[in-house]
């Protein structure tokens, strides 16, 4: 995390920080009831630290939406209690990680009349050792922000300003270019990278739009390619080996961009979407596979039929991938380590585009900084100059295969 830019000013902690979204009920079950919980996350902090995560973003913590009349200030008892949340915050901080949560507000209550009650809820949660809050409205917590959410952020901004170094964030789409106000949100979770095709020209256009909007708002973008409302990258890019190769290539693109890489739990394992017979059109989120050869792969000790997870998922477990050098988990670990170690990734917000063959894109992070090149075409192309730092697929020559990204310096 870079808190000291070249101009000598001190950046807030969230700049360039690696965020990891935890789908709380599907991450780790500590008490055998079949539902992930706060203590389950606490027991897995060692894994998250090893991965290179610097901040956790938890969804599903709060039992009900904030209504300005006393609701929305309780941990959902299914996942724990306030004491377990505070213990998680303490141990996360000891491990060098920040802790943030989703906080939903009742959409039809947003307005000046509810400001005092909303402020009470924010004071309650930030006073519970949290480092930030992503705000949204119910219904539609996972949807891109709109004018109502902007009004909500404006109402809450004075409250956040009383807590030094605490962040307020929103989920955005093309919305914020038209409705956003510079500086109202500290960070914005941008969904556009998770909705673009694996095609070089479209990727570049999307990246350029996000960077321009982020600069206009004065808020760093959180780049996400997976999430509650998004199909997992492996599935979206074609499934099987093709989808995995493209998802790995996009991982290097995302981690090379200025701003904040946002990982969705299980993305680092190249998980596909789960499948339930009869629900083929529905995005199914499966529990995090940790170890073993049978579902639910260490997620829970609860008996039952885990229908969205099959025995074939044994190849995706953390246990299987941790010691495999060419696994997707190993790719993410190496990428995040290099991102911390190489100054060009975090000491500037510049992206200089290179000329590239048809179907390819290449950009450099500042003058003399690392280069990311991606081949979305069907033919092999020459590598750009430089020493190879990392590639999403094995390289056997100075050529870049299809569906592959590479970092060079």
Can you offer a commentary on this structure?
With 409 residues, the chain is an alpha/beta fold. The chain has a single domain, classed as Alpha-Beta Barrel (TIM Barrel), CATH 3.20.20. Helix content is 28%, strand content 17%. The protein has eleven helices and 15 strands. The chain has helices at residues 38-43, 45-51, 82-94, 115-126, 147-160, 175-179, 200-217, 233-236, 240-256, 318-322, 328-341, and strands spanning 19-23, 55-59, 98-106, 132-138, 167-172, 187-190, 221-224, 260-264, 352-353, 360-364, 371-375, 381-382, 388-391, 399-400, 404-408. The strands form three sheets. Strands 1-2-3-4-5-6-7-8 form an eight-stranded parallel barrel, surrounded by five helices. A five-stranded antiparallel sheet has the order 9-10-11-15-13, with helices on one face. The chain has a two-stranded antiparallel ribbon with strand order 12-14. The two termini are 20 Å apart. Mean pLDDT is 89; it is low at 1-9 and 174-179. GO terms for molecular function: alpha-amylase activity.
Which helices and strands occur, and which strands form pairs?
Blueprint: E1 19-23, H1 38-43, H2 45-51, E2 55-59, H3 82-94, E3 98-106, H4 115-126, E4 132-138, H5 147-160, E5 167-172, H6 175-179, E6 187-190, H7 200-217, E7 221-224, H8 233-236, H9 240-256, E8 260-264, H10 318-322, H11 328-341, E9 352-353, E10 360-364, E11 371-375, E12 381-382, E13 388-391, E14 399-400, E15 404-408
Parallel strand pairs: 1-2, 1-8, 2-3, 3-4, 4-5, 5-6, 6-7, 7-8
Antiparallel strand pairs: 9-10, 10-11, 11-15, 12-14, 13-15
Which term fits the overall shape?
A: globular
Q: Which percent band covers the strand fraction? A: 15-25%
Biggest sheet layout: 8 strands, parallel, barrel
Q: What is the count of structural domains?
A: 1
- CATH evolutionary superfamily: Glycosidases
How many helices? The count is 11
Helix percentage range: 25-40%
CATH class: Alpha Beta
Radius of gyration: 21 Å
Report the strand count.
Answer: 15
At CATH level 2, the architecture is: Alpha-Beta Barrel
Going by helix content, strand content and strand pairing, the class is alpha/beta
Report strand order across the widest sheet: 1-2-3-4-5-6-7-8
pLDDT under 50 segments (min length 5)?
A: 1-9, 174-179
Measured distance between first and last alpha carbons: 20 Å
What name does the CATH topology carry?
TIM Barrel
Order of helices and strands: EHHEHEHEHEHEHEHHEHHEEEEEEE
Average pLDDT metric: 89
Pfam families: Alpha-amylase (PF00128)
Protein name: DUF3459 domain-containing protein
GO biological process, one term: oligosaccharide catabolic process
GO molecular function, one term: alpha-amylase activity
